[in-house]
Specification:
Blueprint (H helix, E strand, L loop, with lengths): L13 E6 L2 H9 L8 E4 L8 E4 L1 H4 L9 H7 L4 E3 L3 H18 L3 E5 L2 E5 L1 H5 L4 H16 L3 E6 L2 H8 L7 E3 L5 H5 L12 H9 L5 H6 L2 H8 L1 H10 L15 E12 L2 H21 L2 E12 L4 E12 L2 H15 L6 E13 H15 L9 H21 L17
Parallel strand pairs: 2-4, 7-8
Antiparallel strand pairs: 1-6, 1-7, 2-3, 5-6, 9-12, 10-11, 10-12
């Protein structure tokens, strides 16, 4: 249900726009034979695959994203399973984000398929949030053939909750002054930042709805949840001062693989790790970032999960350096008695590429052994151009179409 809002008062107005079952909807759009059928996008049920997206036709059977594919197939045996095509999803996402930015320069993407849009200026100019949201929905449908749900309110948290009220193809507007009444009947699990464990603690204390939470005294919440208690208290009353941010800092980049069968063989594990390192390195360069820390994530056959990390000599996006560090960490954890069900390679402690280059220029000459000639700017430029060309080919035709030759990082393998 939608509530119209014709107010033009100069107050912050935010839309949360969220595509409906994005990956599955793209597949149904591109493959007409899938329309109207239950579709599960993700890995094979025989290979411990996970559901990345479930179409609305499959959700009526209880299927949902992040569910093991085996479980989803048991719930809906006749579902069509489709392998994800992330390059295609990114392409559609770019179209959608361009539409959002044509509405306002203040757009904060949360993922490929959702974003916050600050429309305050348009409302001040005389448009209503409902009018702006309908324009977005129409443009998305016309340009992509897909549906999108929108929620609008005076804050990010209200807009995000509102966008989920009437899916799919929904539109819900929460007028100023009605935030607390809108939130009151909702279950506490729908409030921003309240996960399953926190929700369970609140329910055990007799707090079932957001309205129940709003009525609890602030000292009671702070006593149980510390600083988060004050944040919960404000959100439950519809208070959220956060602005729409056009820049979101990337803190880490990673790639993971879950194996169909547990592996203990170093060579097979290393082959997977090399591919992950190439993917991470390529994504670093695409984002114009470099990393100081490389880590691996490992999950044993008994589901024990742990990470190990290594700091590089300097911030880098070089695939050989990242691969070498990852394989060294992997070698340390490979033992005859160990078998792994998951491996991941990631990087963190990121910084802008231009900052890393400046630091290298300043300190590299002083730290390089005297017998080693300094690397010329021309050679660095050639290597950068080569990496860029390889990145472009892999993006267009797949990660395995071409890659740079492996270094000597495996000479000391066990």
């Amino acid at each position: 249900m939608s509530v119209e809002d014709g107010s033009t008062a100069p107050q912050r107005r935010i839309i949360h726009a969220d595509m409906d079952a994005f990956y599955a909807s793209v597949e149904q759009h591109d493959q007409p034979e899938l329309r109207g059928k239950p579709v599960l996008v993700g890995g094979s049920p025989r290979a411990r695959g996970v559901v990345a997206a479930a179409s609305y036709e499959s959700r009526v059977y209880g299927c949902r994203s992040a569910m093991p594919m085996r479980t989803a197939v048991r719930l809906c045996p006749h579902a069509e399973i489709v392998r994800p095509r992330f390059s295609r999803y990114r392409e559609v996402s770019e179209q959608i984000m361009d539409i959002f930015r044509s509405v306002s320069p203040l757009v904060e993407p949360l993922s490929l398929d959702e974003a916050f849009i600050d429309i305050s200026q348009r409302v001040e100019s005389g448009e209503t949030p409902a009018e702006v949201a309908r324009w977005i929905k129409r443009r998305v449908r016309e340009e992509t053939g897909l549906t999108i749900s929108c929620g609008a309110g005076t804050s990010k948290s209200i807009a995000k909750i509102a966008s989920d009220r009437d899916k799919p193809d929904g539109l819900t507007i929460v007028p100023p002054g009605t935030e607390e009444a809108f939130l009151a009947p909702l279950p506490i699990s729908e409030l921003w930042g309240i996960g399953p464990k926190t929700a369970q603690r609140l329910r055990e204390a007799g707090v079932e709805s957001v309205g129940d939470l709003a009525q609890r005294p602030l000292p009671w919440l702070i006593d149980r949840f510390g600083a988060r208690g004050e944040w919960f208290h404000e959100l439950a009353r519809g208070i959220d001062p956060r602005e729409v941010s056009t820049t979101r800092e990337t803190k880490s980049i990673s790639s993971e693989t879950t194996f169909a069968e547990d592996l203990g063989d170093y060579d097979k594990l290393a082959e997977t790790a090399r591919g992950q390192a190439r993917d991470v390195s390529r994504r670093l360069r695409r984002a114009e970032l470099r990393a100081r820390t490389v880590q691996i994530k490992l999950r044993l056959s008994d589901f024990t999960t742990f990470t190990r990390q290594r700091t590089l000599a300097g911030a880098s996006d070089d695939v050989d350096e990242i691969t070498s560090a990852a394989l060294a960490l992997l070698r340390e954890q490979c033992r005859p008695s160990r078998r792994f069900r998951l491996i991941g390679v990631g990087v963190s402690n990121l910084e802008a590429a231009q900052d890393a280059v400046a630091q290298l220029s300043l300190f590299d000459a002083a730290t390089r052994p005297a017998a080693t000639p300094p690397e010329s700017a021309e050679r660095r430029a050639r290597q950068a151009a080569l990496r860029s060309a390889v990145d472009d080919l892999q993006t267009r035709f797949g990660a395995e179409v071409v890659h740079l030759g492996a270094g000597d990082d495996d000479r000391n393998r066990p």
